[in-house]
């Protein structure tokens, strides 16, 4: 099987490629990545000889058409994904996440290719901090930022193409990923690098906003479970029930690096900052016989922090 991975030089995409090569060596992998600031060829160091790599944009209709025609399966990770950036300049999010997805599903429909769309729990908006509710596949969409709105739009496009044009597609909405090769703008690598450099990390508001964390390898395994056992047209939520406040995450990194837990600067909260995310992954676990194996956030975090300290991204 030949797999086209869009955004395969980004954080989650590159981890998907690496794990797939390890666990499914029979797969032939083609990566398409624009290598914008968050996509780095270095994320594929050591495996470039094992894949076919194309630098290009998913908005390039002829390129997308050629690559999709030549594959059996498209796994679509490519996206603009940083909320802060979407608040400063929404345009790239609309172009890449909506128009880019349109180009891919047009090509996948034309050539009748299996398509899997990677999405986020942020499309559902947020949950109250004092609630025990979790996002489910039936939760109504209520995106809060240009980023999450653009991802919600792309989800709806995929579903519309399934119903109207027979696109053979599935969707996964996943909770916050952590692991190696993430861009340093994100919470865990940014905090680790700042603290290692002797700088106090910044935390929005009071730090009580809650995120649900899953190791990126568990995410990859969940995607493959959907590809191998999922029902076409269905959506599956992937999470590991690791709810932590942002403050707890930062404090855990401070502890790993031997700093006091008050070595923090609290700053003005982000506009429209979602309160709480929590994923109910029972459907994926029951229907696909999948469950997260690396489900202890604190057990995996030291190894992830060590990766960023060794990477010298500063």
What this model shows, in words?
This protein is 40% helix and 17% strand. It is an alpha/beta fold and 314 residues long. It has one domain: Rossmann fold, CATH 3.40.50.720. The chain has a 7-stranded parallel sheet, with helices on both faces. Helix 1 packs across helix 7, helix 2 packs across helix 4 and helix 4 runs parallel beside helix 5. The longest helix is centred in the N-terminal third of the chain and has 20 residues.
Task: Identify the notable features of this structure and list them briefly.
Rossmann fold, 314 residues, alpha/beta, 12 strands, single chain, seven-stranded parallel beta sheet, three-stranded mixed beta sheet
């Amino acid at each position: 099987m030949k797999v086209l991975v869009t955004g395969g030089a980004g954080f989650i995409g590159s981890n998907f490629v690496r794990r797939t090569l390890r666990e499914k060596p029979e797969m032939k992998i083609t990566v398409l990545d624009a290598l914008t600031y968050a996509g780095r060829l270095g994320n594929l160091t050591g495996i470039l000889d094992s894949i076919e790599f194309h630098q290009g944009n998913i908005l390039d209709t002829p390129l997308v058409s050629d690559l999709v025609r030549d594959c059996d399966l498209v796994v679509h990770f490519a996206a603009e994904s940083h909320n802060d950036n979407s608040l400063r300049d929404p345009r790239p999010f609309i172009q890449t996440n909506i128009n880019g997805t349109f180009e891919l599903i047009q090509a996948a429909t034309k050539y009748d290719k299996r398509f899997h769309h990677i999405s986020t729990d942020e499309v559902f908006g947020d949950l109250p901090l004092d609630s025990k509710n979790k996002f489910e596949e039936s939760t109504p969409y209520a995106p809060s930022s240009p980023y999450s709105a653009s991802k919600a739009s792309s989800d709806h496009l995929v579903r519309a193409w399934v119903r109207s044009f027979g696109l053979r597609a599935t969707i996964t909405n996943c909770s916050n990923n952590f692991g190696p090769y993430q861009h340093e703008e994100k919470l865990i690598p940014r905090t680790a690098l700042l603290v290692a450099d002797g700088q106090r990390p910044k935390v929005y508001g009071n730090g009580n906003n809650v995120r649900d964390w899953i190791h990126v390898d568990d995410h990859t395994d969940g995607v493959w479970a959907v590809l191998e056992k999922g029902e076409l047209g269905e959506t599956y939520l992937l999470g590991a029930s690791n709810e932590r406040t942002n403050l707890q995450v930062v404090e855990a990194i401070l502890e790993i690096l031997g700093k006091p837990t008050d070595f923090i600067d609290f700053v003005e909260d982000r506009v429209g900052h979602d309160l709480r995310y929590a994923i109910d992954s029972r459907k994926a676990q029951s229907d696909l016989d999948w469950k997260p194996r690396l489900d202890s956030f604190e057990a995996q975090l030291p190894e992830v922090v060590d990766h960023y300290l060794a990477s010298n991204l500063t």
